[in-house]
Amino acid sequence: MFIEPRVGNDNHSSHKGWIEVICGSMFSGKTEELIRRLKRAKIARQKVEIFKPSTDKRYHELDVVSHDSNSIRSTPIGFAQDMLLLGGSCDVVGIDEAQFFDEGLAEVCVKLANSGVRVIAAGLDMDYLGKPFGPMPALMAVAEYVTKVHAVCVRCGDIANYSYRNAASEEQVLLGETDSYEARCRHCFTEGMKKKR
Ligand SMILES: [Zn+2]
Questions:
Q1: In the chain, % of residues over pLDDT 70
Q2: What does the entry list as the binding residues for ATP (predicted)?
Q3: Of 75, 76, 4, 62, which is closest to residue 33 (Cα–Cα)?
Q4: What is the pTM of this model?
Q5: What is the pLDDT of residues 48-93, one digit of tens each?
Q6: CA 155 / ligand 1 centre spacing (Å)
């Protein structure tokens, strides 16, 4: 389990600000882990803002919603850049579905962290083809802390890090279509991809 280096305010106000990334496949509990960390920051009376890409229209427009409906209110925004204006005065900025943001995300997170904000971003590390997803690789590179969370392979029960798509669509993003995906381990993912060819 990730233990925060610091939760509340301390004397090193000039040393505040860092980046945490929570990543993994679908059904790995990324959002639950994001919510857990944000709730702890709130208990420590930190000013917390949560952003998600406005393309994510699943469930409620204003909530970061995890699959177990343990949710926190969030603000949908169009561009990563918007976070500089809206999140600059916060102690903690949470980002959900980070993989859907534009390539400017890493730079924005660095600016926020440099100005003293603790940034916690959750997102898919790989798309359904097993390729690095959007701005995630760059973000993971500049983060102090990267936590990979894992799902359980629905085929064999091993640790799963792939989001395998059953549907035939070629689009990278199939929002709200969780029924068409399975968490799979490396072996079962590769077997499935071979059969598709
Ligand atoms: Zn498996």
A1: 80
A2: 24-31, 96-99
A3: 4
A4: 0.88
A5: 999 999 975 555 555 666 655 566 778 999 999 999 999 889 999 9
A6: 5
Domains, the chain: 14-149 (3.40.50.300)
The SS3 call for residue 32 is helix
Q: How many CB atoms lie within 10 A of CB 190?
A: 13
- Maximum CA extent, the chain: 58
Whether 182 is a known active-site residue: answer no
Q: What average pLDDT does the structure give for the chain?
A: 88
Active-site residue, from 20, 33, 49, 97: 97
**90 appears as a binding residue in the annotation:** no
* Residues 3/128, Cβ–Cβ less than 8 Å: no
Give backbone dihedrals phi and psi of 152, rounded to 5 degrees, phi first. Answer: -115, 130
Cβ–Cβ under 8 Å, residues 35 and 64: yes
> Is pLDDT at 168 greater than 90 in this prediction?
no
Instruction: State how far the Cα of 10 lies from the Cα of 196, in Å rounded to an integer.
Output: 54
